[in-house]
Each structure stands twice: as C-alpha cells, then as structure tokens.
Amino acid sequence: MSNWEEDPGETQNMLQGLCRCGLVSPQDPLEQLEEVSGEREVWASLLRLLSDVFLTGHISPVQSKLKSHLQQKFSHLCEGVAKAGDHAPLKKIFTELYITEGGASEVNQEHEVRLMETASRPAADETSITCEDMFKQKPESEEPIRTVLTKGVAGVGKTVQTQKLSLDWAEGRAHQDIQLLFPFTFRELNVLRGSEFSLVELIHHFFSQTKSLSSFKFLQLLFIFDGLDECRLPLDFSWTRVLTEPTESASVEELLVNLIRGNLLPSARLWITTRPAATNQIPAEYVSMVTEVRGFTDPQKEQYFMKRFTDEATAVISHIKSIRSLYIMCYIPVFCWILSTVLQKLLKQTEKPELPKTLTEMYVHFLVVQAKVKNIKYHEGTGADLHWTDETIKMVQSLGKLAFEQLLKEKGNLIFYESDLSECGLDAAEIARYSGVFTEVFRKEQDLYEDKVYCFIHLSVQEFLAALHVHQTFYSSGVNLLSPPHSESPEAFYSSAVDLALQSPNGHLDLFLRFLVGLSLPTNQRLLPGLLTETGSDRTNQATVEYIKQKLNEEGLSTERSLNLFHCLIELNDHSLMEEIQKFMRSGRLSNRDLSPAQWSALSFLLLSSDSALEEFDLRKYCPTERALRNLLPVVKSLMVLSVLSLSSCGLSQSVCAPLASVLSISSLTHLDLSNNDLQDSGLELLCEGLKSAPCRLETLSLSSCGLSQSVCAPLASVLSSSSLTHLDLNNNDLQDSGVELLCEGLKNALMKDSVSVSTSEANAVCL
User: Fold this and answer.
1) Within 10 A of 551 (CB to CB), how many other CB atoms are there?
2) Whether residue 159 has pLDDT greater than 70
3) pTM (2 decimals)?
4) Which pLDDT belongs to residue 49?
5) Fewest CB within a 10 Å sphere: which of 83, 366, 409, 760?
6) Domain annotation covers residue 389
7) Could you tell me if 41 and 3 are in contact, meaning their C-beta atoms sit under 8 angstroms apart?
8) How far is CA 303 from CA 296, 300, 321, 421, in A?
9) How many helices and strands, by DSSP H and E, does the chain display?
10) Position 561 in a domain
11) pLDDT over 60 at 325, yes or no
C-alpha cells in the first residue's frame, strides 16, 4: 500500500500547501504527476519533501520572531512575584522541581495543605519525568502523546515550569521538533469571555508575530494552557458543537473544547496545568498523560537555600529542618521564597536574631518586611523603627477583607478583578502606586487588555490575611465573622473557629485556623502595632489549648482533622501531648498504657512528622492490641514507602480485617505478617479481596496460627493464581486435605511461586 493510501488526510494537506505556492495545479495534482511518472509512491515522497521545504521556508521568519518575543518575555523573572525593575535571569534562579508521571485525573477534595504534607512522603514506586520527555511516545503505546495534564498545588512551580519550557524552546535547548509554541494562560483567556474568534484569529490576537500565516494545519504546534483551575469559561465537553476548521469563528470556550477534543488541529500537542481541585474539568478520554509537580525534594530545597544564602546557608537550613511544619511547606517554591525573604531581613538586623519557629510567626514577619519596604520607599522612613501609617493599616485591612470574602464566602477564589477590589475598598490605582511593594503579597497580572487580573501570590498568604481580618474584626468590634452575630467571649470566639474547621469535610479551613489561633499570641501581636492590639490573652490561649485537647479526645475525629489540631497546638506553643508520648516511648512503657484518643493522635502526629522514611512498621513496638491498630491504621496508610508491616501476636480478630484490607493498596508494601492472630475464615476472606486489588504488590504473607479451616482455601487459591504472592505461610491451621487440594489447583495456575508452607491433618501434601 502506498503512503498516499495510508494517510490520505496528510497527503491532501501537503498538496494544498503545494497548490497555494503554485508548485502544482489545483485540478487533481496526483493525476498530473502520475501521467508523468506513473509511480505514485515516488511522487508521494517528492511532494512530502517539497512541502517540507515550502513550509519550513515560509515559517522560518515567523518562528524567529516568535522565539525572540518569548525570549524577551520569559528570560527574566522575579521569584514570588514581579517587582518593578527587579528581575533576575530565569536560568540563574531556576531550581529543578520533582515531577512524577502517572496519577488519576479525577479531583482530590483534600485541602492543599494536606496535599503538601502528603507530598513530603513520596511513594516508593513513583516515576519521575522531565518536561523535555513529556511528549515522548512510550515504547508500549501505539498512540502518540497529544495532551498532557500537569497538576500541582498552588505555588508549587507549574507556571514557572511552563515559562522555562517556553524559554528553552525559544533558545533552541528543547523541543526543537516543535515549529511554533504558543503559551496561553486562562487568566488572559477569561477576559475574552463573550468574544468570538476563529482559532487562527485567537493565535494572531495573542501572538502578532504569526499574522503572516493564514493556516496552521501543516505545522508541528505546542499549545500551553496554564491555570485551568482559574478558568472562568464554561468548558462543556458534552454539548459544545463540533468545529473542525481553524478559520471558523466561535466563542473562546468552544475553540478550547474542540482543540482539546482533537477536532481542531488534531496533530497539535497540548500541555495544560492546573491545581488538583480542577483536574476533572477535562474528561479523561482527552488526556494522554497526567503528571504532577511535587515541588522540591530535600536535596532541591537545600540547593535553593544555598543559592539564596552564602555564609548563613548551613545555619538557615539547620533551623528550617528543626521545625517540621516549616520544613514541610518548603516543598512549595513560593514558600521557600517567603521564608528566604524573612530570614534574610532578620539576619541583617542583628548577629543573633530570634528566628521564627511557627508558621504564623513567619507570615507575621513577612507582612512586617513588606510594610517596612513600603515605609522606606514611599514615606522616606528608615525601616529601623517601623510605624504603621494609617494608609498602610487601611491597605492591609482591605486586603484582609478581600482575602476573607473570596476565600470563605466564594469557596477558594484565588484571582480577582477590579470590581472585587472596589467592593473591599481597594483602589486599583493605589495598588499600582505600590507596585513592587505590596504586590509581593498581592499582584497585578499584566494583560493585553483593559481588564486587569489580581491575585495573592499564594493560597497561604490569602489564608493568613483572611485570619488577620477575622481576628481584627472581633477584637475591634466584637463581631465574630465565623458565626451568627452575637456578643461572645474571646474563648467562645476561638472555640467556634475550631468547631467550624472540624466541620469541613476537606479541611479547607485547616491553615486558616492555624493562623487564627497563632495570632492570639502576644509575641505575634507585638509585631503588628496598629493592626493588632495586645489582648493579654494568656487565659484565653490556655482555654483554647484545653478546648483543642478536648476535641482530640472525642471519638470519631478523622486523622486529618486531628493532625491539624496538633499543628494548632504548635502555633500556640503547646507541646505537652507530644512530650508526654515521647516520654512513654523513651521509657518503653507505651505498650503498657491505656492511651486516650488525644494521646493516640499525638503518637500519629509524631510518626507522620518523622524526618526519616519509615519502611518497616512493627505494632509490637508501640502497643500490640487491636485498638492500637485501629488508631494507627491511617498512619500506616500514609507511610508511602512502607514495605514491611508486622502485626504478629497482636490480639487481632476478624473484625479488623476489613479496614486492614485497605492497607494492601499501599503500592510499596511487600511483606505482611499476621501470624498468631485469631482472624478466622471470615476475616481472611475480606483480606483476600484486598489481595486481588490492582495496586496490591504483596509478595510475602504469613498466616500461621490464624484459626483457618479448609473453607478459606478456595479464595486463597484464587489469590495465588492472580496476585503477586510468592511466599505464603499457612502453618498450624486446620486446612484438611480438601483445602490443600484447592491450594494445589491455585498453584498450578500461578507463575513464579517459590514456596508455600502448609500444615494439615495429613503429612505434607505432594503438590506443595
């Protein structure tokens, strides 16, 4: 079969290109060529070559102009947010990020703080990938990779990754098989809602360097769409009409849907970035591969701080490592920048500065740094003795109101427009005046349009300012914005905030609560004179601590919420529960104690906050009981590199097998010891379901002396034939000959089973 017949669409495209430049006649050029030669395949190759020459020559000047434009746009960048006149070369400040391949495109409802903490415990079997390799076709796949969806929490570096790839292409370092690259942001596209363009016109609108091209059908293109989570266009993949011609006019959302579907420019490649909450906006059938930006690994964190600090780098890294809540957040590049900004200022002020030890303290210092810069730049102050001017206080209060309104009432909005600012008493012109100062808290996106888009540099900054607004409002007017308006005590104010945060199913108020209780400390209040009045609240703080401990002692509290309550205790400088558990562990008396729910939560917090990756977990080291296992199972499931789980002789019954089966989905788990527990047949049947689950990679399973009979051998035989098990210990169970025969059948169907040890009423069965 000739190449023409294999891909008639490609042939037609190339012929159209040759017709336009006059190389062949529009009237059936193939017949004309065959009359000359009769060799259709020879002419196919010739036409392909001529078409390539024509297209390359025609787009070369366009490509040069586009590359020059992208170099100018992305060659310099300021960390955190652009400051007027203060840009560093992107190549100089860029630190590689850890990006993993795979993962589901469905939405994860957890708050991003929880996702950050999960990211600090990478899975053992993760596959890393670079931006340069994203579109490389897999050997095992017949289909080329067309659309890559990259997810990652706010501030993790998705946008900078897109800018770096664009710059690398423009400077000839990567993806040189791509002829034209078009980086879009959804913030820019949002402004065009209600407008109509053809796809060609949309490209011309954003990239005027391409206006000499009337078609993009024959070119190798890469479209980048950054920030799907910020999209305010109604992307409807069910009912949007089909468009196949890039010159046909439609709404921007219709163009995007058809481009993603592959109806428009099916040979183009697409890279879309998003926060986790928006991953399901694009149906899975239109996504070739999902990747995740995980932020900095531990070595990358150190590399970042070594670049930012010189002589003090070792001391700074040591300090950050000593405070787990700060170290976890350092997976996020924007947080590293905030942290560096604060520490650099403090280290300049005195030889032995008191460095921040809590998250709230860090963000209070960050706000102080911004106010000092403003004071020096616009009011000719020295910054040494900060005086909060009325103007500065008003701006912070307005930013706080905006943060609260959009975060709590609008369920997590991160981008705003001028109308949103006006509603909160913010003047866009005033913000522009302080460009490069408070824009490090709140920045304006530079667009091609009259509408301007604003955002906080990171979700955590927005949550801090929202907490500051709620705190200010209560202490200045007595109004609790978190509950129906009525007069209440400070103790009731904080307890109502705890209750509200605990009611959130996805923890979207977790970080907000940490900041709110942290702002009650006099040490933080003294840093914000004029904004916060010292409340002399030792009694209030102690009442809040006791209320949090009371909540920790309630049955049924989820592990995620209890862990956040411990973070709140840290913000309040209360470490008593953790110190109590550590004392028990050091003395070896933990297994002999009847721990309260709060103490179990403290143990969970300590295990999950450990610096070292826990690859082996032996319940007997802590407390060999069924209750202990139930309390610690959420911890076990969170240990992403766990390979050995030892539960031997822990007094377990069949009732624990259902929750235990969920642990088998940990992809790194290879050894499970359940020997000497009265699991019974009913319990093991539940475990067998877990063993057959797709992610389960268990190789060794010990079930000796578990009270099993022959009736459990049928489900076990099914497991042997379908799972990854290579060693199964069933000693000291009453399986009978009939049970052993069933196991033999399972072994006949199994591959690479090394050994199975079984004790029955008969001496060792032959097949085993």
Assistant:
1) 21
2) yes
3) 0.76
4) 54
5) 409
6) no
7) yes
8) 9, 5, 14, 38
9) 31, 20
10) no
11) yes
- Could you tell me if 698 and 667 are in contact, meaning their C-beta atoms sit under 8 angstroms apart? no
Q: Tokens in use for 286?
A: 């239109």
Q: Are residues 122 and 39 in the same domain?
A: no
Segment (H or E) for 701? strand 700-702
Same domain, 763 and 704: yes
Domain boundary at 295, 315, 333, which?
Answer: 295
**Which element (helix H / strand E) includes 44?**
helix 40-74
Could you give the dihedral angle defined by the CA atoms of residues 475, 481, 487 and 493, in that order, rounded to the nearest 10 degrees? -70
Q: Which of 36, 59, 82 is the last residue of a domain?
A: 59
Domain that holds residue 720: 643-768
| Distance, CA of 369 to CA of 386 (rounded, Å) | 10
The residue type at 193: R
For residue 551, pLDDT beyond 90: yes
Provide the CATH number for the domain around residue 648.
Answer: 3.80.10.10
**pLDDT given for residue 435 in this prediction:** 46
Q: Is residue 267 part of a domain?
A: yes
Residue type, 256: L
Share of the chain residues as helix, strand and coil, in percent rounded to the nearest 5: 50, 10, 40
Note whether 102 and 22 are same-domain residues. Answer: no
Please state the length of the chain.
768
Token couple for 627: 């209750």
274 and 184, same domain (yes or no): yes
Number of Cβ atoms within 10 Å of the Cβ of 738: 11
Is the separation of the CB atoms in 82 and 68 below 8 Å? no
In terms of Cα–Cα distance, which of 151, 165, 204, 152 is closest to 74? 165
User: What is the band of 16 on the pLDDT scale with cuts at 50, 70, 90?
Assistant: low
CA gap 59, 75 in Å, rounded: 23
Instruction: Give me the number of domains the chain comprises.
Output: 3
Q: Of all residues in the chain, what percent carry a pLDDT higher than 90?
A: 26
- Same domain membership, residue 131 and residue 28: no
Q: When comparing pLDDT for 22 and 681, which is higher?
A: 681
Verify that 744 and 667 share a domain, yes or no: yes
Report the alpha-carbon distance of residue 439 to residue 533 in Å, rounded. Answer: 26
508 touches 458 (CB < 8 A): no
Q: What angle do CA 244, 246, 250 make, to 5 degrees?
A: 85
By C-alpha distance, which of 149, 91, 115 is closest to 294?
115
Domain match, 203 and 119 both: yes
- Flag whether 308 is in a domain: no
